UniProtKB/TrEMBL annotation:
GO terms for molecular function: ammonium channel activity; structural constituent of ribosome. Signal peptide: none annotated. It comes from Linnemannia gamsii. The lineage of its organism: Eukaryota, Fungi, Fungi incertae sedis, Mucoromycota, Mortierellomycotina. HAMAP family: Ribosomal_uS9_B. The keyword Transport applies. Keywords: Ammonia transport, Membrane, Ribonucleoprotein, Ribosomal protein, Transmembrane, Transmembrane helix, Transport. GO terms for cellular component: cytoplasm; plasma membrane; small ribosomal subunit. It holds the Pfam family Ribosomal_S9. Belongs to the ammonia transporter channel (TC 1.A.11.2) family. Belongs to the universal ribosomal protein uS9 family. NCBIfam families: PRK00132.1. PROSITE patterns: RIBOSOMAL_S9. Residues 2-214 form the Ammonium transporter AmtB-like domain. This is Small ribosomal subunit protein uS9m. One of its GO terms (biological process) is translation.
Length: 517
């Protein structure tokens, strides 16, 4: 990391000569170019750090260096044409665009190990287009000779079109020429552009030169090309074939990242990092280089375990799934500081996938015992609803997008919805009838007052949400009403969100168009 920071400082300092020296003279315009270059780089670095902190909750020095370079790249096209205020906007927008491009790389799955296109390509394009917006004639005139029409800020909006055409021409030229050069190189024996997967894993120094630059140890040999080297299940030296449940010791998650036989270790270890005393250490898994190695390693291991065990078992749709721990308890079980809701759901989906295996392998059972609720936890019931000191029973109900909080108290049968009378709030009599159904089936119309707060959804969904809350509140007053309400379907939430399509017609309500032929 120290080398990255030092290199960024060298690049930053050299960029003053790159942008300021473009004026080929020592004047105010060259000084302005240096000022805006420094501002854009600073803002770009801070912006990148904040964007990474939003996702990873860590302030990254590497992120600042990447953001600074993206700011330098973005300001370069307009360094001699934009003001200091505009350079702040360019640094911010350039860092945002480059940060997004870096994240999209993993979704688009193209090979750009050093983020060259994401930072220099995207940053240059964004900076070129923003020059058409922020270029100003007074900045260019600081050298006493240059006269330009300016950009959008000076009312010359056509400059944006010129900048866009310039970017398109540059992209087209560089893509065509580079593609031709690489295509020819790839056809020349000995100049293959991509190394074999096994050589990438072993290291090109060892594969091409027969020696290593650094004393890395714990190398994993494999004779099959394309083996997932970071995740091996089975006995040591196996070929990656599907294992039986007896050939696997355990699924290791947390402090040791590998799936496979227990390895003797000497010295400290963290997720994805295996250490042996007296040697430099080598990460066993790519997850070590991520911001959340324990979580990422867990997801990879669960997915890999399912792929490995599936050939020796058969998935069963009727398999009983364990009740998994809640988000907070699972966070502790995994061994991380925090889990996002999306991360928790992904872990549960992977566990449910493993739960379909039948018969269930022993390592999977051990894993489930760690993440599933115990009988004691499942035996804990929710806090029962009670009638408060004012004689009110509170319950909630949901239907589609609507949610309602309902208070029920003994009275003369008044119904207030969001402060309005029920008949005034619901214009359709069907909605009001749906709301009062729990009182009707229990013959309690006119004996309870209902006060509800409801939001979201349409009138039908709101009426059914209030009806569900009303039924629950009635059971709080009189638990003996539960069988009657259950038989009438009043306490069963309707989980449907979209009305089902009817047979013989185009949609839920739309019919097929009749055409005379």
């Amino acid at each position: 990391m120290s080398n990255v920071v030092i290199g960024t400082c060298f690049i930053w300092f050299g960029w003053f000569g790159f942008n300021g020296g473009s004026a080929l003279s020592a004047n105010l315009r060259a000084a302005m170019a240096c000022v805006v270059t420094n501002l854009a780089a600073s803002v770009g670095g801070i912006t990148w750090v904040l964007l990474d902190y939003r996702h990873e909750r860590k302030l990254s020095v590497l992120g600042f260096c990447s953001g600074a370079v993206s700011g330098l790249v973005a300001i370069t096209p307009g360094s001699g044409f934009v003001s200091p205020a505009s350079s702040v906007a360019i640094g911010f927008l350039g860092a945002c665009a480059c940060n997004l491009a870096v994240r999209l790389k993993h979704h688009l799955k193209y090979d750009d190990a050093f983020d060259v296109f994401a930072v220099h390509g995207v940053g240059g394009i964004v900076g070129n287009l923003l020059t058409g917006i922020f270029a100003q004639s007074w900045v260019a005139a600081l050298d006493g000779a240059t006269v330009i029409a300016g950009g959008w800020l000076d009312g010359h909006w056509m400059q944006i079109v010129h900048q866009l055409a310039d970017s398109a021409a540059g992209l087209g030229w560089s893509f065509t020429v580079t593609y031709l050069i690489l295509f020819i190189m790839n056809k020349i024996p000995g100049l293959n552009l991509r190394a074999k997967a096994i050589n990438e894993h072993r290291g090109l120094d060892l594969a091409e030169l027969g020696e290593m630059a650094y004393g890395y140890v714990n190398e994993k040999a494999a004779s099959v090309e394309g083996v997932d080297y970071s995740m091996e299940i089975g006995q040591a030296g196996g070929s990656g074939a599907s294992p039986s449940s007896d050939s696997v010791n355990e699924i290791k998650i947390g402090s040791v990242s590998t799936l496979g036989p227990t390895q003797e270790q000497d010295g400290p270890s963290v997720a994805g990092y295996n250490s042996l005393s007296g040697f430099q250490r080598k990460p066993e898994s790519p997850s070590y280089f991520t911001t959340n190695p324990v979580y990422n390693e867990l997801i990879v291991n669960l997915d890999y375990a399912y792929r490995q065990f599936r050939p020796s078992t058969r998935p069963s749709k009727t398999a009983i799934r364990p009740n998994w721990l809640g988000k907070d308890a699972l966070t502790v079980a995994v061994g991380v500081d925090t889990l996002k809701t999306s991360q928790y759901r992904l872990i549960v989906s992977k566990l449910n996938q493993l739960a379909t295996l039948h018969p269930r392998p022993a390592p999977v059972e051990v894993l489930f015992s760690r993440f599933a609720k115990t009988e004691e936890q499942m035996g804990q019931k929710a806090k029962p609803r009670v009638v408060d000191a004012m004689g009110r029973a509170l319950a909630t109900g949901r239907r589609k997008e609507a949610s309602a909080s309902v208070y029920v108290v003994e009275g003369e049968g008044k119904v207030l919805i969001n402060g309005q009378e029920g008949a005034e709030y619901f214009k359709k009599s069907q909605d009001l009838d749906s709301l009062l159904k729990p009182l009707e089936v229990t013959s309690l119309l006119g004996k309870y007052n209902v006060w509800a707060l409801v939001q979201g959804g349409g009138t039908t969904g709101q009426a059914e949400a209030i009806s569900l809350g009303l039924a629950k509140a009635l059971m709080t007053h009189t638990p003996e009403l539960k069988p009657t309400l259950r038989k009438a379907g009043c306490i069963t939430r309707d989980m449907r969100v979209v009305e089902r399509k009817k047979p013989g017609q185009y949609g839920a309500r739309k019919k097929f168009q009749w055409v005379k032929r």
